[in-house]
């Protein structure tokens, strides 16, 4: 069956879906996006992603394209038409189409709305998590508003490719002080050598991950001590455990950083437990 995309009010074959050559998302990266995990044909962490979408749009002064109810119908219909049971649904909203010029287009220019959905093998993801993955570090050269989920992801792309070139799964970006900010598409966590769970606070200009937020609720319920504080690359290499979180990865154990084995080189008990619980609760509570 051919995949289906939603583009500006029309469901069409994915292979034939297009936007205008002067769409501002294409020419200026003037847009935002969200990604929901799909479990059993339903979206996980729905409200969190929708709330962050509206925040990103408001921060960039892009008009909200439709009501939450209407957008929800579009997302669900795109999932249905693509027959996705387990996977993701991707939403992108740009400032719309207008003559190429840096200032905003005329008021009333309709935003562009694109939705796609695809299946991801749950078994393959679980097998990857069971073995753990490699992480490398990379300089953080992104702009100063990483708290907004924009489509301007070129620094992230370069970091991710640097990881792949070195045979790693993910890149953890490092600021000028030698501290890990976040992954190229994930939030970074460690269990430090003292046994304390650490991740950078979201006041430090990083993306407030929706999966991160869900995991933090679980951490509190399980009574795990959490320290929202930056950690250095050296601290990460000396950690007992390392992992990262994201909508597509859920909780993914990292077993090496820059070739240095973390702990015993196997997924740690905290990451393993949090992953299992997150998947169970996301599947149960998805909409």
What does this structure look like?
By secondary structure, this protein is α+β, with helices and mostly antiparallel strands. 32% of the residues lie in helices and 27% in strands. The chain has 8 helices and 15 strands. The strands form 2 sheets. Strands 7, 8, 9, 10, 11, 12, 13, 14 and 15 form a 9-stranded mixed sheet that branches. It has a 6-stranded antiparallel sheet with strand order 2-1-6-5-3-4. β1 (4-7) and β2 (10-13) form a beta hairpin. The radius of gyration is 19 Å and the shape is globular. The two termini are 25 Å apart.
In short:
The protein has helices spanning 24-28, 46-60, 68-81, 122-131, 154-165, 210-222, 233-237, 269-285, and strands at residues 4-7, 10-13, 31-39, 42-43, 87-94, 112-119, 133-139, 170-174, 180-183, 187-191, 197-199, 226-228, 241-246, 250-257, 260-261. It is of the alpha+beta class and 287 residues long. The strands form two sheets. Strands 7, 8, 9, 10, 11, 12, 13, 14 and 15 form a nine-stranded mixed beta sheet that branches. A six-stranded antiparallel beta sheet has the order 2-1-6-5-3-4.
């Amino acid at each position: 069956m051919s995949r289906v995309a939603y583009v500006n009010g029309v469901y069409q074959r994915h292979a034939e879906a297009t936007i205008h050559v002067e769409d501002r998302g294409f020419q200026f990266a003037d847009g935002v996006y969200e990604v929901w995990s799909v479990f059993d044909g339903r979206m996980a962490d729905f409200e969190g992603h929708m709330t962050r979408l509206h925040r990103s749009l408001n921060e960039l002064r892009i008009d909200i394209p439709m009501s939450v109810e209407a957008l929800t119908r579009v997302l669900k219909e795109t999932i249905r038409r693509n027959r996705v049971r387990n996977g993701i649904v991707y939403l992108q909203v740009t400032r719309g189409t207008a003559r190429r010029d840096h200032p905003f287009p005329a008021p009333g220019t309709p935003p562009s709305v694109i939705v796609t959905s695809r299946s991801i093998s749950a078994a393959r993801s679980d097998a990857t998590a069971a073995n753990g993955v490699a992480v490398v570090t990379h300089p953080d050269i992104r702009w100063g508003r990483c708290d907004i989920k924009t489509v301007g992801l070129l620094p992230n792309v370069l970091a991710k490719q640097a990881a792949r070139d070195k045979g790693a799964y993910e890149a953890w970006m490092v600021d000028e002080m030698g501290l890990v900010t976040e992954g190229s598409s994930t939030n970074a966590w460690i269990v430090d050598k003292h046994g304390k769970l650490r991740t950078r606070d979201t006041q430090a200009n990083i993306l407030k991950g929706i999966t991160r937020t869900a995991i933090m609720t679980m951490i509190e319920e399980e009574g795990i001590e959490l320290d929202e504080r930056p950690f250095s690359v050296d601290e990460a290499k000396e950690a007992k455990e390392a992992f990262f979180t994201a909508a597509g990865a859920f909780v993914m154990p990292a077993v090496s950083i820059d070739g240095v084995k973390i702990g015993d080189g196997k997924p740690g008990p905290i990451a393993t437990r949090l992953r299992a619980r997150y998947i169970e609760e996301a599947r149960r509570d998805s909409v």
